[in-house]
Write a sequence for this structure.
């Protein structure tokens, strides 16, 4: 018995990249199709945005050092009311009026 696979036939494997040998073969010696991955533009955008966000440090060290120096010099006197207002604003959900 002879098995032949014609290019373009159902179940036939297409070579991509001009490789000389298929990566693997099936049980009868026929080439096995390689896995493929397709990423949408939205997924690519999210991936790039996530990578850029990870590059930003969580702590702005220059600001920490400046405040630390003011605390050490006893020159840091934040307005308690402004700090409290900022905390409340930061942790209160925004209501949208209809």
């Amino acid at each position: 018995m002879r098995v032949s696979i014609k290019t373009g036939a159902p179940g036939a494997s297409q070579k991509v990249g001009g490789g000389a040998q298929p990566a693997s073969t099936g049980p009868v010696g026929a080439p096995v199709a390689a896995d493929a991955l397709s990423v949408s533009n939205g997924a690519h955008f999210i991936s790039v945005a996530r990578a850029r966000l990870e590059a930003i440090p969580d702590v702005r060290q220059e600001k920490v050092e400046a405040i630390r120096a003011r605390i050490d010099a006893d020159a840091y006197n934040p307005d308690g009311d402004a700090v409290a207002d900022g905390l409340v604003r930061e942790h209160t959900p925004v209501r949208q009026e209809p």
Notes: The helical segments are 41-55, 61-72, 80-90.
